[in-house]
Design a protein that fits this description.
It is built from eight helices and five strands. The protein has a three-stranded antiparallel β-sheet with strand order 3-5-4. It has a two-stranded antiparallel sheet with strand order 1-2. Strand 4 and strand 5 form a beta hairpin. The protein is elongated and about 65 Å long. The N terminus is likely disordered.
């Protein structure tokens, strides 16, 4: 089989994600960046995350992408290059079925998919369980507002203000790290 499960067993065993495996590097505009430092979901989780969403209700690929973006408060939006191949492999493995509705493949989880999902555990962000995605959206907006204010100071070309803002940001960074260390 060209794209059958037996040729893609590694997909279900070792995982598939929208980020290259740790240790591989991405080159952009001449800069080397280690993808492992920015991996958003643990390897293999994307298939379980998609199955969880489809266990809630049938959806097409774009709906899955938009739903994940909303649940992560805009901090993560899986790429179509990770979602659509994963859906195809899940469908070929018998974990999903689909039907064409208005020109789109609408996927439904199968009983085999539910079994795989139960083996994989809960992968959706815990913040969604308590409907905390609004908090993430507000955090993202606050970050954007701080960034805009910092850029205004930078454009002012006033060395004293730039120094004071840099010191303030360093103080805030230390406070944020102390919050993270509380756990």
């Amino acid at each position: 089989m060209f794209l059958g499960l037996h040729r893609h067993r590694h997909f279900f065993e070792s995982g598939c994600d929208d980020m290259p495996p740790k240790g591989r590097h991405h080159h952009r505009r001449g800069k080397r960046r280690d993808w492992g430092d920015e991996q958003r979901t643990p390897r293999g989780d994307i298939k379980y995350i998609l199955l969880e969403l489809l266990a809630e209700e049938p959806r097409h690929g774009y709906e899955l992408i938009k739903e994940l973006e909303a649940r992560y408060g805009g901090f993560w939006k899986p790429s179509p290059g990770s979602v659509y191949p994963t859906l195809q492999l899940l469908e070929e493995g018998g974990y999903l079925t689909f039907e064409q509705i208005e020109g789109r493949k609408v996927y439904t989880i199968t009983e085999t998919g539910r079994e795989l999902l139960s083996e994989g555990g809960d992968r959706l962000p815990s913040m969604d369980k308590g409907n905390r995605s609004q908090e993430l959206i507000e955090l993202k907006e606050a970050i954007a507002q701080v960034g805009a204010a910092v850029m205004q100071v930078a454009r002012s070309n006033n060395a004293d203000k730039v120094t004071r803002v840099r010191e303030t940001l360093n103080r805030v960074k230390r406070e944020i790290y102390s919050i993270l260390a509380e756990e």
